[in-house]
Here is the input.
Amino acid sequence: MVDGGKAIQLTWLDLSENEDAFRVHRQDVEASVGLVPANAQAFVDRSVACGGSYRYSVVAFNAAGASSPAEAPEISMPACAAGSASLPTLILTVVPTQVVAGEPFTLIFQAEDGAGLVQVTIRGEDTGDPEIDEGQGFSCEGHRCAASWSLTWHGEASRTLTFVAEAWNVAGVRSEPARVQVTIEPSP
Here is the structure.
C-alpha cells in the first residue's frame, strides 16, 4: 500500500520481450483499471476504498494477442476509521483502446461507495462537440454502479479527446474526477 494506506501499488517482473503495453484488471471491475506502457513494472490503483479487499491480474499484450494473466494475491485495505466519510471510488475506461474516426467506441465506468450511490456523470472536456461536452448522466442505486456510454467521433482525426466522470453518493459527497483520454486515429 502507498499514499498513507489509501492506494495499492502492484509490481511485477516484465518477462515479455515484445509487449505493446500491460493491462491491469481488478476482479470487482468489469473493465480494466489501468493501462501501462511496455517495459513498465508497476501500477498504482487509487480507486480503492478503506476496508475493501481486491484481487488483481496483469496481462501483457501486442497486436498478436494477450498473454495469460499473472494473478496477484488478494490485498486488503485497512478498515475505515469510525465516522469517516469516504469519497466514492470511480474507474473510467475506454473500449477499444485504439479509436478510429467514424467508428464506435464505449466509455465504461464502475463506481463504489459504502453509503450508497445516486448518480454518475460522464462528459467530454472541451471536445468542440456540444452534445459530448454536455455529457450523460446515469442514475444509481446501491453500493455499486456500472454502465457504459457508446459514442462515435465524427470530427477531425489525429486529436486527443478527454472525458471526465464523477460519482455522487447519498450524502451528496462527490468522487475525485476520473479521466480518460481517447486518441482518435484516422480511418484506414
Observations:
- The chain has two domains: 8-76, 89-185.
- Residues 50 and 82 are 11 Å apart (CA to CA).
- Helices lie at 130-134.
